[in-house]
């Protein structure tokens, strides 16, 4: 991990954004120490601001990480160094899976960032190897589940398919239900016609086969 790179980025963040005292103080720690910053140092700063622990600071921690993520995405590519920095920040600030979706404002910002990146990736109707890695990074960065993330990107995949893209080049899996919603705006009716009422059976229904 490039400590100086993390320091430079956070120096830029705290000098170019209007931040509350507590967020500014935490950002200052990372700007000064980079990946050598410790959770104990962050906790001490928070308590000095009247915040008892990182759980109470969770929403502000997300905002700080989103500021770094937006900076990292300025060139529309997340590299290995940047994903390592985000992993470090999540550990430092005790960010868990699902935290990015708790606050509506933060979640909308996440959706906006993902949508922008997906539009750019699917613009040429093909997802190459590098873009496939970028998709994995985006999912990891925001701690999103596979199904949740797939729903976000499949709209863009379907749009590309409508433009004439080869589905095999879109690095996407889509369910029959999503196709029907896309075509009609209505959810698919479940198909149980081939189900076998036998607890020992792991029969695959026709809808899943399709």
Topology:
Layout: H1 3-16, H2 21-33, H3 39-48, H4 58-72, H5 80-92, H6 104-121, H7 129-141, H8 146-162, H9 176-184, H10 206-209
Overview of this structure, please?
The chain has helices at 3-16, 21-33, 39-48, 58-72, 80-92, 104-121, 129-141, 146-162, 176-184, 206-209. It is an all-alpha fold and 210 residues long. The chain has a domain at 1-95.
SSE pattern: HHHHHHHHHH
The multimeric state of the shown protein is: single chain
The tally of beta strands, per DSSP, is: 0
Number of helices: 10
Residue windows where pLDDT falls under 50 for at least 5 positions? 187-205
Shape: elongated
Key terms for this structure?
about 210 residues; single chain; about 0% strand; about 60% helix; elongated; mainly alpha
Q: In short, what is this structure?
A:
The protein has 210 residues and is an all-alpha fold.
């Amino acid at each position: 991990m490039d400590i100086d790179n993390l320091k430079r980025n956070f120096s830029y963040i705290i000098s170019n954004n209007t931040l509350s005292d507590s967020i500014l103080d935490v950002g200052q720690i990372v700007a000064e120490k980079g990946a050598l910053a410790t959770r104990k140092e962050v906790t001490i700063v928070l308590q000095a601001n009247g915040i008892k622990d990182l759980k109470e600071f969770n929403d502000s921690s997300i905002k700080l990480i989103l500021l770094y993520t937006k900076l990292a995405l300025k060139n529309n590519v997340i590299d290995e160094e940047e994903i390592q920095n985000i992993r470090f920040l999540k550990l430092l600030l005790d960010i868990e899976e699902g935290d990015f979706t708790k606050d509506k404002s933060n979640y909308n910002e996440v959706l906006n960032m993902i949508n922008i990146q997906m539009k750019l990736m699917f613009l040429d109707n093909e997802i190459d190897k590098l873009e496939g890695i970028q998709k994995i990074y985006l999912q990891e960065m925001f701690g999103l589940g596979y199904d949740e993330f797939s729903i976000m990107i499949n709209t863009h995949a379907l749009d590309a398919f409508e433009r004439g893209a080869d589905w095999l080049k879109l690095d996407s899996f889509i369910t029959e239900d999503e196709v029907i919603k896309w075509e009609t705006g209505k959810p698919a009716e479940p198909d149980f016609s081939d189900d076998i009422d036998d607890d020992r059976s792991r029969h695959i229904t026709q809808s899943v086969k399709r």
